Amino acid sequence: MSPQGTPKPHAMRTARPADHVDNGFYGQDVISVRQFSREKLVYIFSVADEMRTLVRRFGSADLLSGKVLTNLFYEPSTRTASSFMAAMLRLGGRVIPINEVHYSSVSKGESLPDTVRTLECYSDVIVLRHPEVGSAQIAADYAAKPIINAGDGQGEHPTQALLDLYTVQHELGRLDGLKIAMVGDLKNGRTVHSLTRLLSLYDTEFYFVAPDILRLPADMVAEVKARGHKAVEVEDVHEVIGDVDVLYITRVQKERFTDLAVYDSVKDHYIIEPALMARARPNTVLMHPLPRVGEISYAVDQDPRAAYFRQVESGMFIRMALLAAVLGKA
Ligand code: NCD
User: Fold this and answer.
1) Which atom of ligand 1 is nearest to the CA of 253?
2) What confidence tens digit (pLDDT) does each residue in 33-69 have?
3) Are residues 131 and 173 in the same domain?
């Protein structure tokens, strides 16, 4: 990627009409979970609760009527793209969906800065998924309108981490004093990176379960330990399954491998079956950001501890809350 032109001075971001709620999110980008404090999470989760009630009672509202979201996706997506779209539609806004960018001028070689500077002329907020780490920040440097990071390569996926944390809160009723095992591709899984950072704000014990070549990056393990958390790295999920409150399993990220033989050697390393769940505690929450490609057998879906489709539903409420917040209507 070669950025072109000059980034906009951040001062320009303050030149907005005053018809908004001053909630600390208005006009802001959402690039990394590092932007969130416990107080900000309480706020977003309470707005998400209101959105849940709103959808259950009325289906939709007109809070964002007249507003336009551009969904700009350079990588495949089912849940993230459609939940942002559903969130905007349920709040009365409209969406310009640009998927996998084959039919846009990106395929003619247009740069990311020029693409976002164009799309912000038509819309009030841009949701961006892109294969390169740091791309969301580059987009935010050039666009005056809010950019929401929907996944930047192996970097971060902040909105997924928000919905994951919100799900934990819903399932267990608390966020402090929990033990979590993260299992699978901890090296490339951006959802793991964002969720680990968010959980570092709470009293959390971490168990990082991965084959050697998919371990969490060493700087992230060090970061967690430096914050005073217990962080244990193991390869065998049996060692921890009976001891954790949350079991967060992830897909091996095939698209990040240059050698598919290496991918094949690790892709089936962990498979959650009913026999394995029998060793977990009665209230352990089983989570997965989805898509699953074999890591959780379908037989586990009947287990009341399987929370992955409840995660999906919560994702829409969290994205409704975020859109309302950055557009100054929450
Ligand atoms: C995740 C992603 O895109 O990082 N998917 C999602 O947004 N729920 C996880 C994955 O693709 O494995």
Assistant:
1) 12
2) 999 999 999 999 999 999 999 999 999 999 999 999 9
3) no
